Amino acid sequence: xxxxxxxxxxxxxxxxxxxxxxxxxxxxxxxxxxxxxxxxxxxxxxxxxxxxxxxxxxxxxxxxxxxxxxxxxxxxxxxxxxxxxxxxxxxxxxxxxxxxxxxxxxxxxxxxxxxxxxxxxxxxxxxxxxxxxxxxxxxxxxxxxxxxxxxxxxxxxxxxxxxxxxxxxxxxxxxxxxxxxxxxxxxxxxxxxxxxxxxxxxxxxxxxxxxxxxxxxxxxxxxxxxxxxxxxxxxxxxxxxxxxxxxxxxxxxxxxxxxxxxxxxxxxxxxxxxxxxxxxxxxxxxxxxxxxxxxxxxxxxxxxxxxxxxxxxxxxxxxxxxxxxxxxxxxxxxxxxxxxxxxxxxxxxxxxxxxxxxxxxxxxxxxxxxxxxxxxxxxxxxxxxxxxxxxxxxxxxxxxxxxxxxxxxxxxxxxxxxxxxxxxxxxxxxxxxxxxxxxxxxxxxxxxxxxxxxxxxxxxxxxxxxxxxxxxxxxxxxxxxxxxxxxxxxxxxxxxxxxxxxxxxxxxxxxxxxxxxxxxxxxxxxxxxxxxxxxxxxxxxxxxxxxxxxxxxxxxxxxxxxxxxxxxxxxxxxxxxxxxxxxxxxxxxxxxxxxxxxxxxxxxxxxxxxxxxxxxxxxxxxxxxxxxxxxxxxxxxxxxxxxxxxxxxxxxxxxxxxxxxxxxxxxxxxxxxxxxxxxxxxxxxxxxxxxxxxxxxxxxxxxx
Length: 704
Hints:
Blueprint: H1 13-35, H2 63-68, E1 73-77, H3 78-82, H4 89-94, E2 99-102, E3 115-118, E4 130-133, E5 136-137, E6 158-164, E7 180-185, E8 195-205, E9 210-221, E10 226-238, E11 245-258, E12 263-277, H5 284-289, E13 300-317, E14 320-339, E15 342-365, E16 368-391, E17 402-421, E18 424-443, E19 447-465, E20 470-481, E21 500-512, E22 516-534, E23 541-560, E24 570-583, E25 599-609, E26 612-621, E27 646-656, E28 663-670, E29 678-681, E30 687-690, E31 695-703
Parallel strand pairs: 4-7
Antiparallel strand pairs: 1-6, 2-3, 4-5, 6-7, 8-9, 8-31, 9-10, 10-11, 11-12, 12-13, 13-14, 14-15, 15-16, 16-17, 17-18, 18-19, 19-20, 20-21, 21-22, 22-23, 23-24, 24-25, 25-26, 26-27, 27-28, 28-31, 29-30
C-alpha cells in the first residue's frame, strides 16, 4: 500500500539570495577590516562575547551573554533546577515568565507530551514555539506536524533550559511565534576516568497511581581525545487516573572528539519509545461522580523515535568560526481511540533529514565591532498516515479510510550582524524561507496537493548596556507558522492556504549582579492569517481566517541573601506575568483566546544549611475559557465552560549524606494542599481532565 515519493527539485534561488544578502551585509564591514587588520577582539573598542558558541546556536548560556541579550531570555542552569524543587520539565517551565504549561491537555489526557504555551499562544503539543533538544528540532516534523510527542521525561540529564520568548529568531524556524526553547543535555566529560551519577525516584499520588523514574549518566574522556557519555531516563507505572499506565525509555550516546585545540567533531545517537494509556475526557456528571475514573480503558498511544546527529565546529581564528551539523531522525506514533463499536487506529511515520552550515566573521575598526553570521538549512520531511477501524465485537480489521503521503522540502538562509558601538549592541538580520510541500492522498480518492511558499522574515534587536549591571533592550521580529500536512486537504484555488504570520515587538530591562537578577519586559504580538478549522475530525476544513492580538508584561526577580547576614543560605525568587490575548476577527472579536490565563505567577525560596537543602514554591494561574465564545456555564459534555484558576504549593527536603560521598536523598510533596483543578479538551475525546493531586516522592541519587 505504500507509495514511493520522488525527490523534489532543489531550488537554488535561496542560495543566490543568501549570497546577495551576505554581500550587502558585509561590504562596509569588509572595508573596516581592511582598515584595521587586528586579528582578535581584544583590539576592538567594545567588548563582544567570544564568537565561539560551542554548538549552541542560541549563543552561549553564560551569564554575560544572557545579560546582554537584546530580548526576553531566561536561562535556567542545572544548579537552579536542582535547588528549585522541580520534579519535571513542566515545573521548570512554570518558573519562566510568559510561559504557561498544561500537564495533560492532550487529546486523550496523556501526561507524556509537553504542552507549552507562550504569551497566550496555543499550548497543546507546543505548536507555536520552536522547541529544540541540543539545538535540533524536537517535533516529529518541524514543518508538517510541529508537535512534541516525545519530550524528555527526566530532569536528571538536562543541563540547561534556555528560553527566548520573543518571536522569530533569525537563526531558527519555523513555528517560532512563541519563541525558541532549547533543552540542552549534559555535556561529555573532559577528564579521564568514568564520572556520572544514577538516581531513582518513586512518586505516589493521593489518588490511584504511582510510578518509578530512573536515570543514569556516565561519561569519560579517553587518552585518544575521544569523549563519551551515556544518558538514560525511563518511567514505569501510572499517573493519577485509573488506567493511565506509562512506559518510557529514553537513551542517548554522545560523542566528542578534539581534532585540534580549535576544532572538534561531536555526535549523538538517541532512541526513545513510549506506550501511554490515555483515560480521556469526562462528562460533567462523570467528573462529579469520580474525576479520576476511566471511561475509555481501551485507549492508548505509542511511539518510537530513532535519531542521529553529527557536527563539526572550528574556531578558525580569534575572528572566524565555522560550524556544520546534520541530523536525521525517524519517528512513528499511533493512537488508538474508541468510537462507538470501533477502535480507531491512526498510525503515522515520519523521516526528517537536515543539514545546517553557518559561518561567523568578526570585523573591527576603531570603536566598532561586528560579528556577521551567514547560515543555511536544507530540511526534508517524508511522512505517511493511515486511518482504519477494528470492530470491537469481532476484532476484525476494516479497510483503511485514509492513506496519505506527505513531503516537504524546505530551504532557509539567514544573515545577521551583531554590531557593537560603545555601549550599544545592534543586530539587524533577515531569514528567508523557501518551502515546497506535497501531499498525496490515496484514500478515499487519489489526489495530489502542492503548495509553494516563500517568506522573508526581517528582525532588528537593540540593546544598550547602561552599566555593568543594567541592560535596556528593544526589538522587532517577524515569524511564521507553516501550513501543516493535514491542513493541505483544504487547499484549493478558492481556498489558497498561506503560512501564519506574526509580528512581535519587545521593550524591556534586565539587571544582573552578584546577588540580584531581575527583568521586566513589555511585549506586543499581532498574529495574523491564522489557520483555523471549521468542523471536526475527517470533515474539518481549514481556512486563513484567524487574527489575534497578544500584549502584556513579564517580570522576574531572583535574590541571593548576603552570606554574612541573618538570612544567609536563602535564595528567593518570584515571577509575574500579565497577558491579554484577544480574538480580532469574526463574531467573537474582542473575546479572550481559549486556553490561556491572563495572570500567572510563581514564588519560591531555597534554603541551604550545611548538608541540608529546603525548598518551598508555589505557582498560580487565573481562569481560562475553553472556546472562542468564552462560554461560562458548563455543558453536559464537559468540554465547554470556564476553567477556574488555581494555586498549588510544593515543598522538598534534600540531604547530602555525611561520610557517603556522592549520596543524596530527597523527599518532597507536590500540590501540598491536594488542590483539585482541571482543564478541558474539545477534540474527538472531549470532556474534563483532572489535574494532578497531591504527590509524595522519594529519591536517591549517587554520584561517582
